[in-house]
Each structure stands twice: as C-alpha cells, then as structure tokens.
Amino acid sequence: MLNEYELRNRIVSIGETQKITGAMYLIASNELRRAKAAFDETKPYFMSLRSEIKMIFRGSDRDIDSIFYYPQDGGRLSEGTYGILLITADKGLAGSYNMNAIRAAEKAIEEHPDTRLFVVGSFGRKYFTAKNIPFEKDFEFSAQSPTLHLARNITSLLLDKFVAKEMTKLFVIYTNYENDVVMDVRNDRILPFHRREFLGEEDVGDPPVFYPNEKEVLEAIVPSYVCGFVYSALVGSFLSEQRSRMAAMETADRSARDMLEELDFEYNRLRQSEITREITEISAASRFQREKKAKEAADDR
After folding, report:
1. How would you label 35-68 residue by residue, b for 16+ Cβ within 10 Å and e otherwise?
2. Rg (CA), the chain
3. Helix or strand holding residue 190 (H, E)
4. Cβ distance 172 to 87 under 8 Å?
5. Each residue of 141-160: pLDDT tens digit?
6. What does the pLDDT look like over 234-262, one tens digit per residue?
7. Do residues 31 and 91 make contact, with C-beta atoms less than 8 angstroms apart?
8. Whole-structure pTM value
9. Alpha-carbon gap, residue 208 to 185, rounded angstroms
C-alpha cells in the first residue's frame, strides 16, 4: 500500500500528464479543422479530373493501349513486381491508427512477396526497420502537413518507377476518412486502372473532341489524377490520424480522471485514518494524564 507521500506524488504526476493529454487533444483538433478545410478546397479539382477521364473513355470507340490502364477486353496483366505506398504517421499516441495500416501492408506483402514498399511517415519506417522488413530507404517523406507539393513529389517518384516497368501494379494503403466516426484502412490499386472504374458512373453528357487524340490527352491527365489520389490519401490519413489521436487523448483523460478519483479517495481515507490515529493518541494521553492526576490526588489524601 502506498503511503501518504507516495499518493500525493502520484496525484501530482497524473495531473501533469492530464495537462499534456489535454494540450495534445487541442492541437489535434486544430490540425483536424485545418486539414479538412484544405481538403475541401482541392476536392473539386480531383473530381473534375475523374470526369475528364470518364469522358475520354466514353468517347473512344477503340481500345486505348497504354501502360496506365488495362486492355479494353479486361485481359490480365503479368503478376510481376507490385508497389505499395503505405501512409503512416510520424509519431504514435493515435490509438490503433498506425498498426491497422501496417497490418494491411504486411498482409498484402504476405499475399504477394514480390512487392516494393514505399513508406510515408516515421512510425512505419521505424516499425519495418525493427522487424527487418525491406522497404525503400531513400523514400523518406513526412506525413505531417500534407500538401499538393508533397503529393507531386511522391507521385513523380512512383510514376518514374512504374513507367520504367519496375512495377506492374501500384497500390496505396491508407486510412480513409469518412467522418469522425467512420475511418477504415483501404488498399486501393491506382495503376493500372480499368475503363469500367469510370464508365460505371453517371453520364456526363456528350463527349468533347480531344486533340491530338484521346490517348495523348489521357496520358497527360493520368499523372495529375494519380497525384490527386495520393493527395487525397495523404489528407484522409492525416485527418484519421488527428481524429484517432483526439479519441486516444479523450480515453487517456477519462482514465486519468478515474485514477485521480481513486487516488483522492485513497489519500483522503489514509489521511482520515492518520487524523483518527492522532486524535486517538491525544485522547489516550489526555485520559492517562487525568487518571494520573486523580491517583496523585487520592494518594495525597
């Protein structure tokens, strides 16, 4: 059992920790609002690119042969080497956010061992280093403050390797942010893509004429589309990280309050026992003195 001094120190220590968790909650809340605003501003551009690609596919009467998409007949591509872009955080204290994405990557690598892993975020890189799982060492991008500039740099490196046929398929594993309650880990293939991924959507009207031809226009759009996808994955993951951190800090704050209540109760009980003991000792000493004086008075008579 802890003594009074130890209990007091623990109460002070938990109180200090509670201040830290409260500050981290406020920081994560502010980052969440800022990232939401940035994502809402760029989302229309990303959606317009999808519409352009859709119009090209709808307006093309012939198969467009390109490394960026499957054949029109839906034929299979050779397995080859896969590439996985894994998005994690730069730090922990965000509940299961990081480990859920990492487990998804480990599962994908287990299913297809011939995979090159590109990791965004210090947490993921440290994890795979500790586990001796190979990943691209020179691919060191931070997950903090995602921007279109960051997405363009990542996309440029990945596309260079994809165009060079170092990889046959490229996937992105990230945490998709739907709202403050729904956040799920996704493993999406971004290259190559099928025509049906765009043709299944609602019609956008009569297709325009593309110059010089559909293929060249489409291949010019694809890098921007991939960049938009990567950016949305970065921002979605960042939003999920901040919301997960807020939830983790809320849980930590509740646990701290529960611990403080228990420690306060134990401290007060111990303090009350000490006071009771002191009162008992004083009462006993006072009674002893009265009895002693009474005895001395009786002896004098």
Report:
1. beebbeebeeebeebbebbbbbbbebeeebeeeb
2. 32
3. strand 183-191
4. yes
5. 888 888 888 889 999 999 99
6. 888 888 888 888 888 877 777 777 777 78
7. no
8. 0.75
9. 37
